[in-house]
Write a structure and sequence with these properties.
three-stranded mixed beta sheet; globular; 14% strand; eight-stranded parallel barrel; alpha/beta; 13 strands; 39% helix
């Protein structure tokens, strides 16, 4: 029960904006995050800066050697769209940016590490935000052009692609100022417009790849979906229904159009949002509608299910006068944590290993057991080198993953941990640390130091199993 199946891939993940630095070097254009932090640096919780970050742009070869030394099979990283296309469109291609990622990919392959690429991890070129960002359906065409260029440049060597990282989080940048572009457009239903355009952009890229590149490159494409596991607060029907609503308003929002047999948005999501739109007959439902052609184009537009999972919550119906610490418009549910769940360094996350298995079982049942690749799963602390709590977290979550595979026959094909390096965690800056390798941000050289959890992972990757003994010795 502690051994990973043959062929199971174990890897590590990063994202470009969070570690690269070199924010204005070698022809890179500004992203929405560059612009936000330049104009409102006070938003960052610990007042840290991003110009150098972990300096992975210059130190990528050192990081690849770290990944090799830790025996990981694969490395999932993102490409900075504005490093390739400074203005967001193909009229100006930055060859130095193209060359940089080519060198990174070659370095990985030379060391026997599988490169896996995400095209978009929250960092839209700032010039495209001037058009309205993902509220504007014109961005679909810009994204397809960018993706086509990436397939042409790297598709002969990269066989695992994902279009967007966490569309559920992207929409929060347009409604509740959780991410860049740091807007509050809820009154315009920007979240549902953004989500609608992202689904169409993803499907357009998938279909373009299948038509123009698949025969020669034979790669796989998905979209990375994030989701908590939701447990009903009790066994009563109201709580059971509330948990189902919460699942469909989060994971189902983007998974149902792609992975369900019927496509389109989850029926309960359509029903509840339409009900809340009846006072606006002029504009109709706040949840946009796909044409039948769009439903068919989106349905089946993934070769595997890419999952990010960190935590769980308990769910009950929202009572009038209550406010939930988690925002889920029109779902009318209350989300809470159980008191016995251990906390982490992130206020929104608790340690619930069994919830990981429940999430995997729900995907299996809801979407006919698709191949699942876990793309992010990790633990936040204050950055200690002797990170025993992180090791305990991984042991619990990995054991539940293997139970899902061995006892319940979930079709899980790989796992990436978040993250290789302590990174810039968006508006939390460097106060939240998820890395298995520490970065000294007071050192101009950005010295890396493996934590105890890195040695733990090296043992996992060497033996292809979870260590049974306590692993607290350096």
């Amino acid at each position: 029960m502690s051994v990973f199946p043959d062929g199971f891939l174990l890897g590590v993940t990063t994202s470009a904006f969070q570690i690269e630095g070199a924010s204005d070097e070698d022809g890179k254009g500004p992203s929405i995050w560059d612009r936000l932090l330049s104009e409102q640096p006070e938003l960052v919780r610990d007042a840290s800066e991003i110009g150098v970050a972990a300096d992975a742009y210059h130190l990528f070869a050192e990081d690849v050697r770290l990944i090799k030394d830790l025996k990981f099979d694969s490395y999932k990283f993102s490409i900075s769209w504005s490093r390739i296309l400074p203005n967001g469109d193909i009229s100006c291609i930055n060859q130095k940016g193209v060359d940089h990622y080519g060198k990174l990919i070659d370095e990985l392959i030379e060391h026997g590490i599988i490169p896996m690429v995400t095209l978009y991890h929250f960092d839209l070129p700032a010039k495209l935000q001037e058009l309205g960002g993902w509220c504007n359906s014109l961005l679909i065409d810009y994204f397809v052009d960018y993706a086509r260029l990436m397939f042409r440049c790297y598709g002969d060597k990269v066989k695992w692609w994902t279009t967007f990282n966490e569309p559920l989080e992207i929409v929060h940048g347009y409604t509740d100022r959780r991410y860049a572009p740091y807007l509050s457009l809820e009154c315009f239903d920007a979240d549902y417009i953004v989500g609608h355009n992202i689904l169409k952009a993803h499907a357009a890229v998938y279909r373009m790849y299948r038509e123009s590149f698949y025969a020669q490159q034979n790669g796989k494409i998905s979209i990375i979906l994030s989701g908590m596991n939701f447990e009903p607060k009790s066994e009563n029907d109201a709580d059971q229904q509330a948990a189902q609503v919460a699942r469909q308003f989060t994971m189902g929002w983007f998974a149902h159009p792609i992975f369900s047999s019927h496509g389109d948005y989850p029926p309960i999501m359509r029903e509840l949002i339409d009900q809340n739109s009846q006072d606006d007959p002029k504009h109709g439902s706040k949840l946009p509608r796909f044409s039948q052609q769009e439903i068919e184009q989106i349905k089946g537009s993934c070769d595997f299910f890419a999952l990010n999972h960190y935590s769980s919550a308990v769910v009950s119906p929202l009572v009038d006068g209550q406010s939930s610490p988690f925002r889920m418009r029109y779902a009318k549910v209350m989300l809470e944590f159980r008191k016995e769940w251990p906390s982490t360094g992130a206020h929104w996350s608790r340690v619930v290993p069994s919830g990981f298995k429940q999430m995997l079982l729900w995907i299996q049942k809801e979407f006919n057991n698709p191949p699942v690749y876990v793309y992010e799963n990790g633990y936040c602390d204050n950055g200690q080198i002797r990170d025993i709590e992180r090791i305990s977290f991984y042991k619990g979550y990995l054991k539940n993953l293997l139970e899902a595979i061995n006892e319940h026959k979930c079709n899980i094909i790989g796992y990436h941990l978040w993250t290789l390096l302590d990174a810039f965690e968006w508006l939390n800056g460097y106060s939240d640390r998820y890395g298995i390798v520490s970065v000294d941000y007071d050192d101009p050289k950005r010295t890396r130091k493996p934590k105890l959890s890195a040695l733990f992972w090296k043992k996992i990757c060497e033996n292809r199993s979870i260590p049974e003994e306590e692993f607290f010795q350096e």
